[in-house]
Write a structure and sequence with these properties.
- It is a single chain.
- The protein is α+β, with helices and mostly antiparallel strands.
- It is built from four helices and ten strands.
- The two termini are 18 Å apart.
Length: 171
């Protein structure tokens, strides 16, 4: 995959109204948020992963996961993941370098995890109400957190990819 750093301006002015919000019934037996699927951002910095503590009032609240949410029809996977992360954590996309994507495909619905390196002075600020806290965790600590149920299922596979990336990028 080609590495791509995203300019800030493309996330401040959406191209179209949000048309991805809504629930979908899936053949897997689950009900998922995002009419066009959903995407989240897994940020790595200094061998740590940024995690979002979801506010208690949101679906599967009071758990740790990745910032992310419903993908709008006009957005790429990367655009949706970074837009949601900007909304939920206040990161600046200029400090984000996408290095991979992991897809959890349910046939009727899909959650894409955009894997990225955090560069420079990336900070979280201006959290929206969906975010209770943000933390940077060593990879070995993540499984011990109270994880969002769907993230908990995919974390073992993501953990292997993150470990390989850290080893290959010498992070």
């Amino acid at each position: 995959m080609t590495k791509r750093i995203f300019p800030f301006h493309s996330y401040r002015y959406p191209m179209a109204a949000k048309d991805g919000d809504g629930w979908i019934e899936c053949r897997c037996g689950g009900k998922h948020w995002g009419l066009n699927g959903a995407a989240g951002l897994l940020l790595i910095r200094d061998r740590k992963v940024m995690m979002q503590h979801r506010s208690p009032w949101v679906h599967n609240g009071d758990t740790w996961g990745l910032p992310g949410g419903a993908r709008d029809s006009h957005e790429s996977i990367q655009e949706a993941a970074i837009r949601e992360s900007v909304e939920e954590t206040g990161i600046h996309p200029a400090h984000v370098e996408v290095v991979g994507i992991f897809s959890d495909d349910h046939i009727d619905w899909r959650y894409d995890t955009v894997i990225a390196i955090a560069h420079g002075d990336l900070e979280t600020s201006e959290w929206n109400p969906e975010t209770h806290d943000i933390g940077w965790f060593n990879i070995e600590e993540i499984a011990d957190l109270e994880l969002h149920p769907s993230f908990a299922k995919t974390w073992p596979t993501l953990q292997c990819q993150v470990n390989e990336l850290i080893a290959s990028e010498n992070l």
